[in-house]
Amino acid sequence: MGMTIAEKIAARAAKTSETKAGEIHTVELDYLMSNDGTTHLTIDMYRKLKHPRIADKDKLVWIVDHNVPCDSPKTAASQKKMRDFAKENGIRFYEGEGICHQIMIEKYVCPGQLVFGADSHTCAYGAVGAFGTGVGCTDYLYGMVTGQSWIMVPETLRFNLHGRLRDGVTARDLILTIIGKIGANGANYKAMEFAGDGMKNLNMSDRISICNLCVEAGAKTALMETDEITMEYLKAHGDRKPAAVFASDPDAVFAGVYEIELGEIVPVVAKPHFVDNIAPAEDVKGVAINEAFLGSCNNGRIEDLRLGASILRGRKVSPKVRFLVVPASREVYLQALEEGLLSVFSEAGAIIMNPNCSVCWGSCQGVIGKGEVLISTGTRNFKGRAGDKDSFVYLGSAATVTASAVKGEICTADQL
Known about the structure:
Its EC number is 4.2.1.33. The chain is an alpha/beta fold.
């Protein structure tokens, strides 16, 4: 019987010839990523161990991205703890460089690897053919101390993508549509695998956007085959080489198979207060907004900024709206600066922020008040996610968010 990509990566990590969905295996980890959201808790637990040790410091990457710059003395203390521990133990440490997942994909993750991240959107690494999955502090600590962990090999849902997205429709619209179709629990503890002829029409930014949001359907991980687009990205970012290149076998067993015609996807939004509460953007046009956000690990890459700037060029942000634009990494920021995109945003009245999680995290920048409405390219729209518990968050694409910022109400770019 053939194996899926998830099963093959699990087998490589477990140092065995094959695995099957439902089996539990001890696995070697390629990287362990942690950010300032929880690393201070991991350090506290580490210091309580009888025989504390780090199995392999070169597998650890620690990134401050959630509250940058610091928003309070309490945050400053937790980040100092993280900073000092990393220095004492020779751990790779990034601060002010951008969002953890963007940095990991730009600099570290390679096809075939198994990566644990102390953040739920670690599944984004599937865009480069890696099995990335989010874990809590206890599992992270175990991996940090031993270099190993265990996984139950997930079943796989296969999504065959066909054709090409229409003009004005983005990969963000695609994955939100899929989440709306299968529901927030539709992929619980499963891998979501994407394949089909439509893949060649999706660039790396598109692929990251798709894989990144799969956890919002409950997925354990998301995966895509390694192809020329993957290899070109790896070459351009450090000339990295795959750990292994996997594709699902023709006779692999899937828990479900979906055929998706990309040409049928339309601009959509996720309405408050659930990511699977999906509606065509047309159905919510005219909803007044107070704030718009273009950024996050889902939509803060150079392609997203180019799209937003193309819509904004020659226009102004509505005086009723605060429009925050936040590149996902320093690399993206500098490229946007070089291309003149930041000037377009600034001249139009947008607020340009340093690379970080920003509004998506809802803690240190762009926090919204009671009754206010945000349209965001962030990852979640749960009640209170971006501020007051009685505020409202809509999720949309970079195009929809930018157009809405101009009009002062939810709309798509072709409605300007």
